[in-house]
Each structure stands twice: as structure tokens, then as C-alpha cells.
Design brief:
single chain; mainly alpha; three-stranded antiparallel β-sheet; rod-shaped
């Protein structure tokens, strides 16, 4: 795997010219770096799926609260919405940390 020295794009092969920024200098990742990159990419996919699921939970919570069945039910749906928001925010923070902590 190769990382563009200009923009940080990671590719399986060295293309000579970066398709993103036009840079021409690449660094070959070590086996350890490549393994970390692959784990990070797979984890990022899971976080993206968690964000999508959390958004669905928030929408369902709004629908459930609209029924206004009783105070405990409404309270539960409001908590679900808050938890969905928290899951979404934690996932976003982790995605950012992967790119800022050298996990590509």
C-alpha cells in the first residue's frame, strides 16, 4: 500500500501520480502500517453503520413519542433519542480520531 505524501490518499498500488491531488511522491506503508490501515478502514465502516442506525433510532423515537401513550412511554422514547444522538456523536469522534492519530 502507498500513501500520497501530499494529500494522504492511500492506494493499493503506486499510481505514479495521485488521482486526488496530482502529487507524485508516495511512501510505501510497512506491513504493520498497512494492517493498521485495513483495521481502521473496517472499523470506520462499522462506525458509519452505527451512525446510520442511530439516525434511524432517533427518527423512530420521535414517532414513538408522538403517540404520547403515557408519560413513561414518552420518557423512554426521549431517552432512546438521546442515546441515538450519543452513539452518533461518539462514532463521529472516533472517525475523526482515526485520521488524526495516524490510523489513516
Amino acid at each position: 500500500m502507498y500513501k500520497c505524501n501530499v494529500c494522504g490518499l492511500v492506494l493499493n498500488e503506486n499510481p505514479g501520480v495521485c488521482p486526488k491531488c496530482g502529487g507524485k511522491e508516495f511512501t510505501q506503508l510497512t506491513d504493520e502500517q498497512a494492517a493498521l490501515y485495513k483495521k481502521s478502514r473496517e472499523t470506520d465502516i462499522l462506525y458509519i453503520k452505527a451512525i446510520k442506525a442511530a439516525a434511524k433510532i432517533q427518527k423512530l423515537s420521535d414517532l414513538g413519542a408522538e403517540y404520547n401513550l403515557d408519560p413513561n412511554c414518552v420518557s423512554a422514547f426521549k431517552k432512546f433519542k438521546d442515546y441515538g444522538y450519543l452513539i452518533e456523536q461518539i462514532s463521529k469522534a472516533e472517525l475523526i480520531s482515526h485520521s488524526t492519530k495516524g490510523k489513516f
